Every structure is written in C-alpha cells, then in structure tokens.
Write a sequence for this structure.
C-alpha cells in the first residue's frame, strides 16, 4: 500500500522558469494538502484541495502560485516565474476525508532550488 | 526507509492534567533534528518544540518539554497543565541531512473540560 508519492524529489530551476510539483495521494484518499517549509522556518499551510475543488487556499501567495487536483491524476502545485525566495521544501499530505481528526499522511517532499 | 512512529492515534485527558505523547524514530545519521508540531483545525502547522540531536539537554518551552533518549531513538512530548486550546493533532518529525523531513502519523489529543 504505497504512501503519498511526491515527485520529483529534487527540482532545480533558474529564476523566471516554471516549477511543477506533483503529489499522488494514498489510495482511497481524496483530500490533499500542500505545505511549504522555508529554510530556518516551520511548516506553512498553503492549500487544501478535494478532487477538482480548492477548499482552502488561505496560505497560497496571491501571485505565481496555483494548485489543482484533477479528477484523474496527481495534484499539481505550480509556481510560475520562480524567484530565489521560492527555494524551499514542499510537502504534500493526503487524508481519506476532510475531518479534522482524520490522520494526514505526508509524502517525502520536493526540494526546490532556484539558481 | 527512515520512519517515525507515533503509537497513539488518539489520546484524551482532563484539563489541567499532564499528558505524554510518544514518538520513536529510525535514523542512520548522527546529526539530525526532531520536532513536535501542533496542527489545530485551521490546518496550520505550529512548531511546538525542537531538539537538536547533538544536545543532551532536553528542550523545554513553557508547558511543553521533551524526553529525548538518543540511544533508544525516543522523543516524547510532555504537556503539563493541559489546556483546552491544546486540543489538536500533534506530529512528531525527524529532519536533517539528505533525507529531509519524515513525519509520524500524528496523535489526536483531546483535552476534556
């Protein structure tokens, strides 16, 4: 029973390029959450999605960042025109339902480095 | 694979009691960090306490303290004088080195009035 799969594990981009981070939730999970861990800081909630819907994007930067979770395929976190400050580890978690006491299962993260 | 194990999916205690959340981990590294994060219903991840593996002294932050036993790879969180606002999911994390962060599955802590 595979856990949450994130790819790539490491991603290097030059300033101005686009970064696409993928997250495949655990089997049977339809709720996905994205978090960002900035160097020297803690984890920051970004966005919560259920299949084809964005439920809560209160933690998403207003520009350049977007997320989707299509009916088929993984959830995608997309960062356009990346800047140095986007360098961070991005973690995805999934849960079976959106109830607050449902356990979230985390992936191994994608480390994004901006040159 | 490096793992972090939280053996208590859910715990419930009365307000003002002391509660201990357990966490064990696996690592082949010598230098690493351990964290406890609190996740309230807002889904934010709030850093509760952090421990550097090279430090023998247990970290303490107000009502929160840890019992770090490096040889046993154990990192439990003690909450003293528990408050209703402590109700949340608590995640134990191991980080550092090339492996990045590894999360435990979480413990749902309920503080009863």
């Amino acid at each position: 029973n595979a856990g949450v799969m994130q790819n790539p594990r490491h991603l290097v981009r030059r300033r101005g390029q686009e970064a696409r981070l993928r997250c495949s939730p655990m089997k049977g999970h339809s709720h996905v959450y994205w978090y960002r861990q900035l160097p020297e800081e803690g984890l920051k909630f970004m966005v919560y999605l259920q299949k084809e819907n964005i439920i809560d994007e209160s933690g998403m930067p207003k520009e350049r960042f977007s997320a989707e979770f299509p009916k088929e395929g993984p959830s995608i976190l997309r960062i356009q025109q990346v800047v140095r400050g986007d360098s961070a580890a991005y973690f995805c978690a999934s849960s079976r339902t959106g109830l607050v006491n449902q356990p979230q299962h985390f992936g191994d993260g994608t480390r994004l480095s901006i040159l | 694979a490096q793992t972090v194990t939280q053996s208590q999916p859910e715990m419930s205690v009365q307000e003002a009691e002391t509660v201990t959340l357990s966490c064990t981990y696996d690592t082949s590294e010598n230098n690493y960090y351990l964290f406890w994060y609190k996740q309230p219903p807002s889904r934010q991840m709030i850093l509760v306490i952090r421990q550097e593996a090279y430090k023998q002294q247990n970290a303490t932050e107000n009502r929160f303290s840890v019992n770090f036993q490096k040889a046993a790879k154990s990192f439990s969180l003690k909450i003293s004088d528990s408050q209703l606002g402590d109700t949340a999911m608590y995640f134990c994390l191991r980080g550092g080195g090339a492996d990045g962060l590894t999360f435990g599955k979480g413990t749902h802590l309920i503080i009863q009035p």
Summary: The mean pLDDT of chain A is 89. Chain A touches chain B at residues 33, 35, 37, 42-45, 48, 56, 59, 89, 91, 93, 100-101, 103-106, 108-109, 111 (CB under 8 Å).
